[in-house]
Amino acid sequence: MPIMTLVNANGIELSHESFGHDAAPAILLIAGLGTQMVRWTIPFCETLAACGYRVIRFDNRDAGGSTHFNACAAPDFGALAAALMAGQRPDVPYALQDMAADAIGLLDALAIDRAHVVGRSMGGMIAQIMASEYSSRVLSLTSIMSSTGNPALPQAAPDVMAMMMRPSPDPFTDETGFLKQSLAFARRIAGTGYPFDEDSHRRVILDEARRAYDPAGVGRQIAAMAVAGDRRPRLATITVPTCVIHGADDPLISPACGRDTAAAIPNADFLFIEGMGHDLPPQFYRDVILAIDRTAKRAPPNAAVRARAADLR
């Protein structure tokens, strides 16, 4: 079993775990909004590592065991929306660019020159910024259930947005109510191509709550996404091998967002998965892992990667 470790990166502490051989080419997994590294499950990480990679999962800032920005108040979403509608950029605790710099700092702390980068949802947006702004550090990009920030794209289904923004009961004083609301949301954003595994979702929801329950931190991450703007000009500069993956049933980030991402990145592959929603159940591990591996293998190995591979022989 991997051991969670804290490292100093970009002026904060990031918790992370590694799977596979340290000398293997690295794959960095970036979690989504308000979720923790445990959403990249151990079976997923171990299966990906078995393809010949060092797989690293970590908690973003304001999530899990990483630094929480508790000195910063939770954003006022009414004021945030009003400023954006007026064409102003509101003052927020941090931006997605800061979260991308965190991930680069993690690679620095682990002495990893370049990595294959995989992000889901908000993590896909962070991965896109890494590939466009830190091109010398990224070997390949896989963006899963994410978007470009294009303002013309469809928004989340209204009921899904309402469920996501509704305050939830405190899991430590009303675990039953907290689970009921969290499971209802998880069921709503799940796809139709597989049975909803309530027990599995219950375990990860409680695991995350016990590791670090921080609704204000989720709010700060939402604010970072809200001010991110349209990334399409940046995406057009990405030159590394790229795969965009999206579920046909995603009600939170529309499939049109995945298509827009693939169209914005030169020569990107697009994998459209029928029956997949805004989650990654075991039924789709094989398809997603094969896509990540296929994309990584399109990257020309640099000297550092060749040296690590030689260490394994």
Outline of the structure:
This protein is α/β, with parallel strands linked by helices and 313 residues long. It has helices at residues 42-49, 77-85, 96-109, 122-133, 158-165, 175-189, 198-211, 215-226, 232-235, 255-264, 285-297, 303-312, and strands spanning 5-9, 12-19, 26-30, 54-58, 115-120, 138-144, 242-247, 269-273. Helix content is 41%, strand content 15%.
Question: What do you see in this structure?
Answer:
By secondary structure, the chain is an alpha/beta fold. The protein has one domain: Rossmann fold, CATH 3.40.50.1820. It is 41% helix and 15% strand. It has twelve helices and eight strands. The protein has helices at 42-49, 77-85, 96-109, 122-133, 158-165, 175-189, 198-211, 215-226, 232-235, 255-264, 285-297, 303-312, and strands spanning 5-9, 12-19, 26-30, 54-58, 115-120, 138-144, 242-247, 269-273. Strands 1-2-4-3-5-6-7-8 form an eight-stranded mixed beta sheet, sandwiched between helices. It is globular, with a radius of gyration of 18 Å. The model is unreliable at 303-313 (pLDDT under 50).
State the secondary-structure class: alpha/beta
Q: Describe the largest sheet.
A: 8 strands, mixed
Strand order of the largest sheet: 1-2-4-3-5-6-7-8
CATH architecture: 3-Layer(aba) Sandwich
Q: How many domains make up the coordinates? A: 1
In DSSP terms (H or I, runs of 4 or more residues), the helix count works out at 12
Residue ranges: pLDDT <50 for 5 or more in a row?
303-313
Q: Within the CATH hierarchy, at the fold level, what is the topology?
A: Rossmann fold
CATH superfamily membership: Alpha/Beta hydrolase fold, catalytic domain
SSE order, one letter for each helix or strand: EEEHEHHEHEHHHHHEHEHH
Q: What is the overall pLDDT average?
A: 93
Rough shape? Answer: globular
Radius of gyration: 18 Å
* Beta-strand residue percentage: 15-25%
Query: How far is it from the N-terminal to the C-terminal residue, by CA?
Result: 24 Å
The number of strands is 8
CATH class designation: Alpha Beta
Query: Into which percent range does the helicity of residues fall?
Result: 40-55%
